[in-house]
Each structure stands twice: as structure tokens, then as C-alpha cells.
């Protein structure tokens, strides 16, 4: 039997991020449990690189964190005057002109954008704390399966900042404006039960069952033909920006493409 990419070792393993690939499933793991998978610019660059290194065979990407917490948010050293060695501190960032500051934040955001690519379905497996940047990283994925001990919180506003790592758009889409505002402005914890009840998470399971539940979901996603999943994902993602009649038109166009492909008449 041929060896999988996972048997040959990780595709990427640096700066607190490990990427492994096993046929159609890739796993991105945050690998610094001693610091509760705290995030830094180096980690964000590694996450961006992981997205670029995905083989074309990958259909499902699982995002997980080692240890008791998925990710406790930003590395606190970023808030200190000295910051993280080799990286700009928040004080340094504040001294930049608007264009440089905007470009720097845009670079950070790249770590959070590729998870919703049309050719993959991403699943965040979330346990323990998912705070601030950790919450936003979970929100970057298409789906979330959570352990019963999960604690989501958006703490940026409490620190005098705003959530700027792409989390606000999916949060409003999942739970609505009023609840999203309340979650962000108060910085309170959102439990597993609430996350499922509000649509923030797809499923909550005992912590010991988290990996198995994610594997089952990944297998179910792989059971459908790839092109149909890609087309459906694109159709659903665009729905919120279309009127009802525009969505009907998009459905017809998508179905026409699928029927032609199935009949061998595609372009």
C-alpha cells in the first residue's frame, strides 16, 4: 500500500503550526500548548503558508489545537513595550502611517482568509478557550465542532481594540447583529450549549469525543462528489448578498453546470 503524505511527515512544521496531509484530508494543528496556542505574527505567517502548501487533492481541512485550549488569543508579549523579538509591538504598529498600518494588518488577515476557499471545506475542532484571535480563527472556518468545555470570547473591545482578524463578518452572519454586538462589547464567554443553540457551532460533544466527531463529519463531507460540494458551497456563500430572485437565478445556473458535467457535456 502506498504511503500517505502523513506517513512521510508533516508538510509544514514551524512557528507553532503543523500541516499534515492524508489523501483528501489535511490537518492544521496549533502546536504550542504550553502557551495555550497563543498567536503571533510568526504563527500567522505559518498559517498563511499552510494554505498555500495544500495539495490539490485536499477536500477537507481540519483545524485543531494541541492541549487543553484551542487558542487563548494573542501572545501577551505583543502588548508589552518590547513586544516579541523580531516582530513589531502594538506600540510600534501605532507609530506607522495609515498605509503601512493597513498593509500590516492585511498581511495578518491572510492567515484567516483561505479557510473558506471554494475548493475545500474547513472544520475547526475547538476545545477549551478560544479567545480573541482564537475565536476569530475558529470563525474563519466553514464549520465548527466544539467540545463541551469550550469557551468562546471576543476580548478585543475590552482591551480598547476591535476584532480585526476577519471574525466580525462570519460572527454577524452566524448569530445576527444584536447578539454579535453583545458578545463583542461585553467580552463574555459563550459556552458550548449557547454556541450550538445560536448556530455558532454545528455540534457539541464531550471533549474525549471531539476528534472522532470531526473525523465522522469529514467522512460525511467526502461522501458527496467534490464538484457538487464546491458548487453548493459557492451558491450558499453568495446567498446573503443576493435577493431571493437573484438566488433563484444562481441556483438555475449552478444546476445547469452540474447537469452538463454529469452528462459529459461540460465545457
Notable characteristics:
10 helices; disordered N terminus; alpha/beta; 10 strands; 267 residues; seven-stranded mixed sheet; three-stranded mixed sheet
Describe this structure in words.
- With 267 residues, this protein is α/β, with parallel strands linked by helices.
- Helix content is 42%, strand content 16%.
- It contains 10 helices and 10 strands.
- It has a 7-stranded mixed β-sheet, sandwiched between helices. It has a 3-stranded mixed β-sheet with strand order 6-8-9.
- α1 (41-52) packs across α3, α5 packs across α6 and α9 (226-239) runs antiparallel to α10 (244-262).
- The longest helix has 19 residues, at 244-262.
- The radius of gyration is 19 Å and the shape is globular.
- The model is unreliable at 1-6 (pLDDT under 50).
- Helix and strand string, N-terminal first? EEEHEHHEEHEEHHEHEHHH
Largest sheet: 7 strands, mixed
Shape: globular
How much is the average pLDDT? Answer: 94
**Class by helix and strand content?**
alpha/beta
Give the spatial strand order of the biggest sheet.
1-2-3-4-5-7-10
